[in-house]
Predict the structure.
Amino acid sequence: MPLRICHQEFRLLRDFVEQESGVSLGEDKAYLIENRLSKLAAESGCKTFGEFYLRLTASPLYDKLRASVIDAITTHETLWFRDRLPFKILEEQILPEFHKEIRAGKRGTVKIWSAACATGQEPYSIAMAALDFYIKNGYTETACCRQTQILATDISAGTLSFATAGKYDDNTISRGLPRFYLERYFQKTGNEWVLDDRIKNMVTFRLFNLKDPASGIIGPFDIIFLRNVIIYFSETFKKTLLSRIARILNPGGYLFVGTGETVGGYSDAFSLLEVEGTVFYRLKN
Ligand SMILES: C[S@@+](CC[C@H](N)C(=O)[O-])C[C@H]1O[C@@H](n2cnc3c(N)ncnc32)[C@H](O)[C@@H]1O
């Protein structure tokens, strides 16, 4: 049975969540705090959300508790090859373009950032699409691994440890993974599908909060997947984040956001591109 939250408690916790993660909870989201944080509050020995807020902001366990709150309050919904087209565009349009530059000696690598990677399906889908491009064009897996660097980050330590393990149940596998990739890159062990090291080793996972300035810490990148995350942020933070994203994209770099998300109105640093109804962006020179 969830704890009930009063308006004042809601405002305190809502502001805390926004300050820590950028996630902006509207006035109608009190139920979300009740549903997602009641268990944590109870486990911390708190009888009200007011008590829990004080514990959260004052206790010496602040960091651990704060991380658990952010883990619980953020939405980690994801699937393999989500919306399909971004991965097709990556494989058939963007990687061939960058690979041409590699062959011409103008660059050594392609650097890709999955900026809110949740349980790993997005960066692993990127890795599979990249490997497909190399194999279909007669290049080796070794060349793909050497030339494609994929950094995957998330604010949630819980989802990152899941992603790093690369083990998924039937239900997770059934969500968007083409049979071909299942047969090629997974092995069934007990109830789990274990991802092949060839794909796992192409992705580096790291804890990173998009609230923190990325410049000088990570990047620069040639391609950024910032998908299905800015939808949770306030208008002000979207502007700040997209101007930071523009600074850590290399000239001519590409940006994918989620279907239903847009850069329009938040940043004019990008040109809009479209393939088969899928919109993506390129940094203006
Ligand atoms: C809905 S999932 C999207 C996963 C994937 N990008 C996709 O499109 O399927 C949103 C992810 O954003 C992460 N997230 C939320 N706020 C964040 C922040 N401030 N910094 C980094 N990651 C954040 C959440 O932990 C969650 O895993």
